[in-house]
What does this fold into?
Amino acid sequence: MTEKIYSNNIRKILQNKKLLETSLKLKMTNQANIISLDGKAEDEYLGLKVIEAINLGFSITKALFLKEEDFTFEKIQIKPIAKRNDLSQVRGRVIGQRRKVLDTIEGLTDTFIVLHDNSVGIIGRVSDVQKAVYVLKRIIAGSKHANMYAWLEKRKAEERNII
It folds into this structure.
């Protein structure tokens, strides 16, 4: 079975085609911006997720973390969650000055986060991604950053006490 996916970042994928093919155990072909993936069904599914992550703006190495069994990729659309009509202001709240908000959330959740247009992509371990998704959705909806950082720090402290 062959899966097809549109890629707006075709150059990056073609430059790393051999690495992607060997890492994902797939055969990749392209026609214009459509990439065809040929391999086992589970490998094709993983390939689709990796290419989707690359399209969102993740580097090849970060996208390939999805090969790990306990890693996942989540995509959040800003528009349905935001209470404001001015999405540039909402994106600014998510990014922060000099990417401070994203870096803080990445550090507290041990995830990789990318913002592209009106989408936020997150790669990490399943439990960490769930926490990052919760916090990002709350920030997009208008919650105070400090409250969300405190929530994450509390969860991190609880995890350390369990282990």
In short: The beta strands are 2-6, 27-31, 34-38, 71-77, 112-116, 119-125.
